[in-house]
């Protein structure tokens, strides 16, 4: 069925489960998840690659920019447009928060993904995520068919075949493996062969691999892309495998589990989820292993066939026990029911219930009030605090003593270099709706970034946030007093600066936070006698 069919029949679906990965194949799910809530299986923690692809191909203009801002604030957006290397920004920021917040629940295949979620967004977001092993059915080798398969692949029965499976890519450390192979004793033995089984993209990295192979007499083959049957044939034909990784984005390597399911002795390094594989089921190197360590691992398993067989058997048993379909299916059933029970009392369910009400058509003001109430009672599950700064103070005040308050140059520095655990949100008071609004356009122009992808919407401050307001001669304090009082009653720390304050041009945002602690405002204080007054 199509996604349009699911939208039309969503009310008939008892449960919906999405499989989200960092791939263009999953691009349609972003809008679908917003329309049809469900639980998700997160195959890749980082979704920055697919978000950048959606933006570049205009599937959704500014998709990556919006995801960066939502998850990481203006600093990430600035890097996206200021950096000459967009890949570095994709590797740095997950850009996945909106998907995680929309999901009824999240299934991950490694605890490493949960660690990444805690690192980026705090415990509250991921403490209810469920770990379920990536499903793999164990396979069975037949010595007779193995000999025939080897013959068909051009391999001899006496060959020691070492394979690395998956696309040839820098994060797979293919060049590191090839260098170690060429420096090892295996490369000098005519019966040893290294085979890279996977697509070889036409790029500089792959060309370097071909050049390295051409300059040696060792037996090394790059198959390029192969179909599923041929992929399985190499798994059957191999004696051992090497699956290396770096810069994990929270993915679980299906190729490693494929090797284990075929009973292959497999060398891995402790990067990302591979660090969680039971120590007796793989030959595990340190994450940042040395070439000498990899050579030792290759030569050890090459020389000791009994060790290879024993390691492969333990790997096979691990797949049969903890990754088999029945075991994983039972875990999914439990997790999905738990997610749906919990979702009945959470924000998404409330919003959908309100939108389903008959004859309820609130105006913009009522929608804004309703949104503020929902935000206050059901704040987003993230540990990132917001420091709201009123841009009414973003001007130089010339007085007899030439004192001044914060300037756009201050703000630019603070937005790009926010304090640890904070993101800076410039705001302004909108008298038309009697609320403070995000100063998106003002800030993005300051950062020299596009402005047409976001509107200046009302802020959604929570009890963990801090608000810096200004009492300036040209601002009618009474107009914004009620708005500040509402923020205060929501638990927001409101700091008020009433007179021009000298702040050094190179002042850090941390120093501003310390300064604000001595200028806390309370709604029962009259501005002229407030303890926040500056001398």
Q: Can you walk through the features of this model?
A:
The strands form 3 sheets. This protein has a 6-stranded parallel β-sheet with strand order 7-6-5-8-9-10, with helices on both faces. With 535 residues, it is of the alpha/beta class. Strand 1 (17-20), helix 2 (29-35) and strand 2 form a beta-alpha-beta unit. Helix 3 (48-56) runs antiparallel to helix 4 (63-72) and helix 14 (254-261) crosses helix 16 (305-322). The chain is built from 23 helices and 15 strands.
Tell me the radius of gyration.
29 Å
Terminal CA distance reads: 69 Å
Poorly predicted sequence stretches spanning 5 or more consecutive residues: 396-404, 526-535
Please give the largest β-sheet.
Answer: 6 strands, parallel
- Please tally the β strands and state the result: 15
What is the percent of helical residues? 40-55%
Widest sheet, order of strands: 7-6-5-8-9-10
The structure class reads: alpha/beta
Based on Cα principal axes, name the global outline: elongated
Mean pLDDT: 89
Our estimate of the beta-strand percent is 5-15%
Number of helices: 23
Element layout with pairings:
Blueprint: H1 3-8, E1 17-20, H2 29-35, E2 39-42, H3 48-56, H4 63-72, H5 74-82, H6 86-92, H7 97-102, E3 106-108, H8 111-121, H9 123-126, E4 130-131, H10 143-152, E5 160-165, H11 174-183, E6 192-197, H12 204-214, E7 220-224, H13 228-237, E8 240-243, H14 254-261, E9 265-269, E10 283-285, H15 291-303, H16 305-322, H17 325-343, H18 347-355, H19 364-377, E11 385-390, H20 408-416, E12 422-430, E13 435-438, H21 440-446, E14 466-470, H22 477-489, E15 493-497, H23 509-517
Parallel strand pairs: 1-2, 2-3, 3-4, 5-6, 5-8, 6-7, 8-9, 9-10, 11-12, 11-14, 14-15
Antiparallel strand pairs: 12-13
Helix pairs in contact: 3-4, 4-5, 10-13, 11-12, 11-15, 14-16
């Amino acid at each position: 069925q199509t996604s349009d069919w699911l939208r039309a029949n969503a009310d008939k679906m008892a449960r919906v489960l999405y499989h989200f990965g960092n791939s263009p194949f999953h691009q349609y799910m972003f809008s679908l998840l917003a329309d049809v809530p469900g639980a998700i299986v997160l195959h890749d923690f980082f979704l920055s690659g697919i978000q950048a692809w959606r933006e570049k191909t205009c599937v959704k203009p500014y998709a990556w920019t919006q995801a960066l801002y939502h998850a990481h604030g203006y600093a990430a957006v600035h890097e996206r447009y200021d950096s000459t290397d967009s890949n570095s920004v994709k590797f740095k920021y997950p850009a996945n928060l909106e998907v995680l917040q929309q999901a009824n629940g999240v299934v991950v295949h490694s605890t490493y993904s949960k660690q990444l979620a805690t690192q980026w967004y705090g415990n509250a977001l991921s403490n209810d995520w469920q770990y379920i092993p990536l499903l793999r059915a164990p396979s069975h080798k037949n010595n007779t068919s193995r000999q025939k398969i080897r013959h068909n692949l051009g391999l001899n029965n006496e060959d020691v075949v070492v394979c690395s499976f998956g696309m040839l890519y820098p994060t797979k450390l293919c060049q590191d493996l090839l260098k170690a192979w060429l420096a090892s004793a295996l490369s000098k033995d005519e019966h040893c062969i290294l085979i890279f089984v996977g697509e070889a993209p036409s790029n500089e990295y792959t060309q370097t691999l071909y050049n390295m192979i051409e300059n040696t007499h060792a037996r090394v083959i790059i198959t390029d892309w192969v179909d599923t049957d041929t992929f399985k044939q190499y798994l059957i034909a191999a004696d051992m495998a090497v699956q290396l990784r770096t810069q994990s984005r929270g993915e679980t390597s299906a190729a490693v589990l494929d090797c284990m399911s075929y009973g292959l002795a497999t060398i891995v390094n402790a990067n990302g989820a591979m660090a969680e594989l039971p120590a007796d089921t793989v030959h595990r190197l340190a994450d940042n292993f040395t070439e000498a360590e990899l050579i030792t691992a290759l030569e050890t398993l090459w020389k000791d066939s009994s060790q290879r067989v024993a390691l492969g058997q333990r790997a096979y048993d691990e797949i049969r026990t903890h990754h088999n379909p029945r075991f994983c299916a039972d875990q999914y059933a439990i997790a999905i029911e738990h997610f749906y029970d919990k979702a009945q009392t959470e924000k998404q369910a409330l919003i959908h219930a309100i939108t389903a009400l008959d004859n309820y058509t609130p105006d913009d003001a009522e929608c804004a009030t309703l949104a503020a109430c929902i935000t206050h009672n059901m704040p987003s599950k993230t540990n990132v605090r917001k420091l709201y700064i009123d841009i009414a103070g973003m001007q130089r005040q010339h007085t007899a003593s030439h004192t001044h308050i914060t300037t756009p140059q201050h703000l630019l520095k603070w937005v790009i270099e926010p304090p640890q655990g904070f993101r800076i949100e410039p705001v302004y008071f909108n008298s038309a709706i009697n609320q403070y609004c995000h100063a998106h356009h003002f800030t993005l122009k300051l950062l020299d970034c596009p402005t047409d992808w976001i509107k200046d919407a009302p802020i959604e401050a929570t009890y963990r946030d801090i608000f810096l307001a200004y009492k300036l001669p040209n601002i009618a304090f009474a107009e914004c007093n009620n708005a500040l009082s509402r923020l205060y009653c929501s638990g927001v720390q409101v700091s008020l600066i009433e007179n021009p304050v000298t702040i050094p041009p190179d002042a850090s945002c941390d120093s501003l936070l310390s300064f604000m602690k001595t200028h806390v405002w309370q709604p029962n204080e009259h501005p002229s006698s407030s303890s926040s007054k500056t001398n």
